Amino acid sequence: MMKLKLTLLSVFLSSSCFADKLALGGGYYSISASVGERETSLASAGVLSFRYSKTFMSLFSLNVDYSVLSESLFSGDKSYGPQISLSYFHYGAETANNIVTDGFSLSSLKKLNPYGIVGFSQREYQSIESSYSGFFLGGGVEMGFKNNFGFYTELKYSMLGGPNSGEVNETLLGVGGFLNF
User: Fold this and answer.
1) Which domain holds residue 29?
2) Is residue 14 situated within a structural domain?
3) Is 10 among the domain residues?
4) What is the secondary structure of the chain as a DSSP string?
5) Can you give the pLDDT at residue 18?
6) What global pTM score does this model have?
7) What average pLDDT does the segment 146-173 reach?
8) Is residue 174 in some structural domain?
9) What is the maximal distance between C-alpha atoms in the chain?
10) 151 vs 91: CA distance, rounded Å
11) CATH code: domain of residue 72
């Protein structure tokens, strides 16, 4: 058992587990929710998100996100929570890349790199003190700008379920920047 723990620890601490892309973004959301006979909707430009990504098999990226949705940009009711997702890049997951070896530098920059994304989301809604979870799908485009840096825009649609047969449909339109390592 101790050997298994040490093996798992060494895998998680190895350089192969560290992120090769970090992203920070913001955007706009639209939510429609229902619990029983009650329905409501809300839309605002109050999204803040952080993404930690690891590329594998050159076309895929495993992502761990954390986002906060606010009624207004910095105040009001909030919804927050983690998401785990898988992105598929048809042209390869590295949009902006710079390789340096023995004093020789090679840069690769894709102007537009579309992707699809599917994942699982959990949200904690502050005002109703309830958690909702479910799946989402979406897509986006990364735009290379400089070596190891670029911008992205994406659209995600989430179908979440919660207590008392509650349902939330959430649409997020995000924009931001990313840094490759």
Assistant:
1) 21-180
2) no
3) no
4) -HHHHHHHHHHHHSGGGS-SEEEEEEEEEEEEEEETTEEEEEEEEEEEEEEEEEEETTTEEEEEEEEEEESSSSSS-EEEEEEEEEEEETT-S-SEEEEEETTEEEEEE-S-EEEEEEEEEEEEETTTTEEEEEEEEEEEEEEEEETTEEEEEEEEEEEEEEGGGEEEEEEEEEEEEEEE-
5) 78
6) 0.81
7) 92
8) yes
9) 67
10) 16
11) 2.40.160.20
